[in-house]
Amino acid sequence: MNVKVAGRSRPYRTVAFNAESNAVQLIEQRLLPHTFEIVGTKDFRATGRAITDMIVRGAGAIGATAAYGFAQGLRAFSGKDPAKFNTHEDLVFKTLAEARPTAVDPVNAMLSMRTKLDRSLTIAGQQAQALVLAHAFADEDVQHCLELGEHGAPLFKDGMRILTHCNAGWLAFVDVGSATAPIYAAHHAGRKLHVFVSETRPRSQGATLTAWELAQEGVSHEIIADNAAGHLMQRGEVDLVIVGSDRTLGRTGDVANKIGTYTRAVLAQRHKIPFYVAIPLSTIDWNLTSGLDIPIEERHQDEVLGAWGKTRKGQREYIRVANPGSRARNPGFDVTPAELITGIITPAGIFKPKDLWKNRKRLGMTSNI
Ligand code: MRU
Q1: What is the CA(168)–ligand 1 centre distance, in A?
Q2: What are phi and psi of 243, to 5 degrees?
């Protein structure tokens, strides 16, 4: 995606790799929309921390970060003993897999790299191959998002008003985005759309990241308070809802996504508004059999009790909003049951949630996942 920095527009990927310094390069998303900065992680542990601390966030982006972090970790091994190399590989895998629990993309990314690694190669050969595989994963992420755009764009007619939640845009992937892909494709085809962006408390990914992206792309949009969604739907001001997913169950069609997604799906059903979810294949979990088994990340209470922002003097600051003595509960995600979802937009086409399983071959299910 093109980003305008200091008056100049140039293409960026959310996640990239510097082979010379063996560093994963990330857009520092916690600073957006006020500051655009690229940071490098010096080793796989720092890459894991960047995922945990949400320098990089969004299922696809943390999947690609884990893929590069896995390659980064393998490349840093300097011994000659294959057994030690394997033990080191397990540590790198575990560190990156545990960085955030809900999105399945990091685990899927590393598992698919692991099965493709040619174990007959020397350690140096496997280290080189790991980076090739990480690049391939990142490129596939971009390709999948472009395909989501192709399949989803026909749903977006001229004049439609769309509601989206959180950030399932290019910042949540390597490029393009999932929920935003059809929006961008329809917009580039000349259709006039208006996007209502849920603020997405407590971290405000909608107000900060999605709004910034849509502004960069020139898509008409307004930020709404999370609580305004029902009101707008009731007044007939929303034609379609589209969101991304952190984990979609291939067996049931249930979708884990940012907290508040479930509420929007219930409201959409009440008002007979189509509710779509857009996903690349790396977001599908073919193992779990119930949405209630998806691990839901519980985040720090300070995110609920206050907010980060930029002061009038230009300083980034955290402001406590809530009553000083009160505590907070902060689940990061919720699960939308399949029956509330109109369709799941995938790189292989649009499916009813319950039909994912019978189309599992087309949707890339392999025995290793
Ligand atoms: O906590 P975040 O910002 O990583 O949550 C991101 C979301 O919930 C997105 O909607 C989701 O990852 C789908 S788009 C990849």
Answers
A1: 6
A2: -135, 175
